[in-house]
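Lecture notes, unit on protein representations.

Consider one protein chain, 406 amino acids long.
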Amino acid sequence: MDFRFSEEEEHFRSEIRDFIRKSLPPDWPGAVDIQHPEAFDDIHELDNEMRRKIAARGWIGLSWPREYGGQGASLTKQMILEEEFVYGGVPGYDQYSLVLAGPLILQFGTEEQKRGFIPPITRGEEKWSVGMSEPNAGSDLASLETRAEEREDCFILNGQKAWQSGSHYADWSMVYARTDPDAPRHRGISCLLVNLKSPGVTMRRIKLMTEMDYLNEIFYDNVRVPRENLLGSLNGGWKVAMGSVSSERTFGILLINQARQDLEQLVQYCRETHINGRPLSRDPIIRNRLAQAAIEIEVGRSFGQKLNWLAIQGQPIIGIGSQNRLYGTAVSLRLAQLATQILGLFGQLGAAGGNWRPEGQVHDRWAKLKGRMRNRYLQSAAVGIWSGTSEVSRNTVAAVMGLPQG
């Protein structure tokens, strides 16, 4: 395995960094680090503007086939793009459209579905969300209760989904519903492509302990879904769902790339902050713990490169993808705890009124690093749940190892 990138690939990386530098405000904190609900809504226009710019460069669905609006580029370039965008906290690069919906439609969709749904994504015109979790069905997806009754020309969808990220700005959702209540749990599920502007769809935003409300509950009340919007086979939704496990290989890499920037900012803080006339970076315990965090992040980057290499080679990645996710979760949690300990009582403070506004820089002398580490610490409670729990990831690793079920 060769970790070196070609000259063309390194030039592409430089092009991406130049684009980010010129396109985003100099005080941009990162799309996942906006800390005030009003600011989150304010940047919706920035998100749309950036998505149009990214689409104009052909970077949305970069590695997807040209006949559906992609560029047919290598997976290596796609992975370089994802790494730089996550590290830079770039808005407009919709993970749910690009990591889940798009790849699954390309894998399981009909020709009509590919030509109908993929080009609007690559043009930056439509966004997607994914409806898996429910109030009584999270890790155990097979226990979902949302139902889709088959009719002559459509499905009638009824039920509730929860924890859908950014759905209030999305156009479509991949909704998993039970289409055969008499079949074994895993065999009676189908995946439907649902227009979120359809009659009978209502949403309620969920406020998190970070005070943000980008998650949603979605209610489906006799929603008509055309039969041609069935993704995959009837009652074959479990296969589509398992396909999403491979598609979501990037979650652990995403966490490691976020941790890279967190560590860089924390190290800079320790260099600039003096206690009793001495910089924190001179404290031997802090130095050792920062060094340990740097080692863990570098191991995570190598782990991610191996995962990407296996994907490029067309080899199975479900097991190592789950390992990577678990490792990224652990590193993210430890770094959030370390940052909060180093900041002390300041680590509990978020920037008053939010850490960023479209009109310019937000200054708060008490919220160190603009409250970034407080936000990351609160988020860390959920990283072992997002996109499937850590327990499910461990079960997946155990299954790949050939261990018997308990």
